[in-house]
Amino acid sequence: MKKHLISLTAILCLLLTACGPLAKTEKLSDEEVVNTLVQAVQQGDYEGIKPYISDDNPLHQLFSGTDDAVGGDMAPVYRAWLEKAGALTCTAKAVEGKETWGTVETTLTAPNYYNAFHDAMSAALEEDVETGSGAFYDMPGWMSAALEGEGETQEESWQLHVGNRDGEMVMDTNTNRQFFTALCGGLKSYLDASMTTCTFPDGTVWVLASQGDEIVAIIRTESISGASQYAAEDLEAVIQAFEAPYETLDGLFAHGEVQGDLLVSRLGVDMETASSFTLVQMGLIDKQTTAGSNGHLSLNATISGFTRDGAQCVTETFKPAQPEE
Fold first, then answer.
1. DSSP state of 207
2. Residue 165 and residue 4: Cα distance in Å, rounded?
3. pLDDT per residue over 303-321, tens digit each?
4. Going by C-beta distance under 8 Å and a sequence separation of 6 or more, which residues neighbour residue 90?
5. Hey, what's the torsion of the CAs at 190, 192, 193, 195, to 10 degrees?
């Protein structure tokens, strides 16, 4: 009888350890939670991340978006970024005396492409103003181009907090938001990015690049008929008069040209670089109708104002359309 008991015990041990050394029966320390999470991001292991983050974490959108059916035209951008995540390094150590609060001193070294994304957008904006190529609207295109470069390396340290939720060790998103922003490598702002095209009855077209509700760049295109009635030198003078005021202003690009009987003017604005005071003074934006509560140029308020003035606005998120319920 004793031999049978030994055999059954051995079988049970094999069954309980079949899932590997970090089976759910083994509890991780606070610093192990941080390190395990970062290692899962390094390896592109979405399932390995899920146990340690809450439902509102941006990593859910980033990782699920690598699937074409979820991320749409942005999926290649997310996949390209995850290839960069292998360069992540992390050190984590529980803070002595603060173990009860799950406090972990953490230093993360991570690739950061925020500035590269901005530079790629600005280059596409300038090209589009000059040529009308449509490069600015192609957000997945210029973001992918940015990821072909080296980007920057960012090192930051925080005191992170690991908490217990329903028996599981989880890192709260809001409490550790700076860490998760850094872990996304400059991509977090673009997880909710969009392009909106507003067309007015007179043919004026505004294209608005936004991160959430914040407009970050603009192209306005206006067309006036009757160009064939004027001499070439007169048209050239009109074009020069249009372009000249913007030549010395940071973040502003202007170009005029003749297309058949149309005099076409394009104006581009990089909101991160341009002076908002200058934009208001020039009448390009109305701070009373477009400024959000935190001072940014609001997409929702701008669309509302444009719509009241007769524009038709369409917003593109580059994600697959959701099926109607």
1. E
2. 41
3. 999 999 999 999 999 998 7
4. 34, 35, 38, 106, 107, 108, 109
5. 170
